[in-house]
Amino acid sequence: MTTETLPPAVETATPATASTSNTYSVLGLVLSILSIPLGMGPLAVAGVILGFFGRAKEPAAVTTANWAIVVGLISLFGWIVLAITGFVLFAPWVLGAWVFTGFTDFSGFSGFVGF
Fold this sequence. Notes:
Elements: H1 23-38, H2 41-57, H3 62-94
């Protein structure tokens, strides 16, 4: 009777690799860039959210995800500032300032004839 000695078992399990896809990051960056000329805040918000998803799920595309977040936040901040500025500049007309006739009423000024 012979006994056979077997070599020790070697595990050949492959380690879990991170996703090499960069779909979330690139899509977030595209939406963030498109939100600047189109003036759509929801695109900027979607770009920032996809940028955070890309940072969490795509380690190979962290730089692209960071750019998506930064560009989206800058776009969103810029459009908020522009909206506030527009409201401050044009609110007097919306709220009834066109009724004010102080600059066109020349009845007290004697330099102009017929006014």
